[in-house]
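Field reference: sequence -> structure
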Amino acid sequence: MKEKNSLGVVLVVEDDLTSVSMLSDVLSNEGYTVLVAMDGEQAIYIANKMQIDIILMDALMPKMDGFQACQALKEDVALEHIPVLFMTGLSSSENVLQGFNAGGVDYINKPINIDELLARVKKHLSNSHLTLSARLALDEVGQSSITCNMNGKIIWHTNNAIEMLSNASPDPTWATEKLPNIVKNWIMHDPQRNSTLELRDLSGMIQLRFISRTHPGEFLFRLINNDEIYAKQRLKNQFSLTTREADVLLWIAHGKTNREIGQIIDMSPRTVNKHLEQIFRKLDVENRTSAAAISLPYI
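Structure field:
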């Protein structure tokens, strides 16, 4: 449900009718579509039935409180992407920490400052849309990517990534029980962008490449299998390429555009083009079609 020209669908989870009325009027006047839940259980039910863009969650409610409801939402793969902003008069550091540990992205104190609320809703909606667009793009180009939280738990993955892990491990629980500890320990050592870690207890050679921190407490990784590793090494040796040039040439040979290559290896299309210029010079070719043709025997 999203009305025409709506800025987004906001689910207000609040048991106080006066607050519900105020928030609904303010958000509706700004151009948002507003849905209302009176407790945590109702919020989860609505989120499963409707397309929600962002949730304003009261912390203290009957039946299921806001912290429990948020945690339940974040444990559901289909709903974990929805940003949750807590609204509460509880302002101690312990309560703030509880909100973030439950999966909330922000904390708004009561009584609510309307201008502050609208600014934060706009900001987190924008961040959420950018993240969702990036994830869809990674899935479309066949990327093997996962996003993990601070504890190493996978909170999002492309279809290719989960298929690769399933094929590489006879244990169906490996990704949920063993991988988190591996990732958590690596995160604690503050890995540099594009650094890699070999997943030794899987069949074949699979590396985990750290791409970036996408949000506070969220880390994006790419899975690289042995075929890709060996292919890049062969291209690098055969044509005296740098590591990044070998990355680019590999995906050129697979028919990817500069934009798609940038999404795969975390690089701007302009930088991809600069690497292409060097690749053309080293391969003594004039275009990407010729470069792809020359590289195919080595991948």
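Note: The longest strand covers residues 206-215.
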